[in-house]
């Protein structure tokens, strides 16, 4: 059984989707710890309700990104996870951190990467007049939101959409594709090779599977 550490900063709805998936009979993974950089993240209450060890590593307590990331690594490695999952974790990680977990660090980003790396993805998709939008699960590399995609979900953009209505539609899909990708990893079907992702030994398309 694959031990998964989940890093959050906020609501933790993706954490919830992973908790729910991990509680199904025969699930190949379990959540061994939840770590938040914000003491007020609602996801901490979700972890507590699920009886999962949760801790806070508050970035305000550190004078540099390097010292924060080192404390984060210590907190994570204490639980010896096989996989580290970023679920709405809103801090940029140092190359040192990313290298430490290379090949076993996943993120979910609310856009159809490589479109809209960074913040405000829903607003930017609307402003661009796109007809579709979505979310991407990808391996994390040193390039921000630039690591190899694993799986993408698409949603239509509808007349009258606001960033909020669009975000809600995307999140429903996030809660499907993140447990899927984590399940693949836990079943040893998903790997990172160089700058590409492999599923069942086959290179995934550059945008991941849709
Ligand atoms: C999710 O929509 C995720 O894609 C996004 O934050 C939200 C977290 O929601 N992540 C990023 O923007 C990463 N840069 P949650 O806390 O309810 O899972």
UniProtKB/TrEMBL annotation:
Pathway: Purine metabolism; IMP biosynthesis via de novo pathway; N(2)-formyl-N(1)-(5-phospho-D-ribosyl)glycinamide from N(1)-(5-phospho-D-ribosyl)glycinamide (10-formyl THF route): step 1/1
Residues annotated as site: Raises pKa of active site His: 145
PROSITE patterns, A to Z: GART (PS00373)
Annotated EC: 2.1.2.2
GO molecular-function terms, A-Z: phosphoribosylglycinamide formyltransferase activity
CDD domains (alphabetical): FMT_core_GART
Keywords from the named record: Purine biosynthesis, Transferase
Chain positions recorded as (6R)-10-formyltetrahydrofolate binding sites: 65, 90-93, 107
Enzyme's top EC category: transferase
Function: Catalyzes the transfer of a formyl group from 10-formyltetrahydrofolate to 5-phospho-ribosyl-glycinamide (GAR), producing 5-phospho-ribosyl-N-formylglycinamide (FGAR) and tetrahydrofolate.
Protein family per UniProt: Belongs to the GART family.
Protein name from the UniProt record: Phosphoribosylglycinamide formyltransferase
């Amino acid at each position: 059984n694959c031990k998964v550490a989940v890093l959050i900063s906020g609501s933790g709805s993706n954490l919830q989707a992973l908790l729910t998936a991990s509680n199904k009979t025969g699930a190949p993974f379990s959540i061994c710890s939840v770590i938040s950089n914000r003491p007020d993240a609602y996801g901490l209450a979700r972890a507590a309700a699920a009886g999962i060890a949760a801790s806070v590593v508050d970035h305000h307590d550190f004078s540099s990104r390097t010292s924060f990331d080192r404390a984060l690594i210590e907190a994570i490695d204490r639980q010896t996870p096989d996989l580290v999952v970023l679920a709405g974790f809103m801090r940029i990680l140092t190359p040192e951190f990313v290298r430490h977990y290379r090949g076993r660090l996943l993120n979910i980003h609310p856009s159809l990467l490589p479109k809209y790396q960074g913040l405000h993805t829903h607003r930017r998709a609307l402003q661009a007049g796109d007809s579709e939008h979505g979310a991407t699960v990808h391996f994390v590399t040193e390039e921000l939101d630039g690591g190899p995609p694993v799986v993408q979900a698409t949603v239509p953009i509808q007349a009258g959409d606001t960033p909020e209505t669009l975000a809600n539609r995307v999140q429903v899909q996030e809660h499907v594709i993140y447990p899927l990708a984590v399940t693949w990893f836990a079943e040893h079907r998903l790997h990172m090779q160089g700058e590409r992702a492999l599923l069942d030994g086959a290179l995934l398309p550059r945008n991941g599977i849709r």
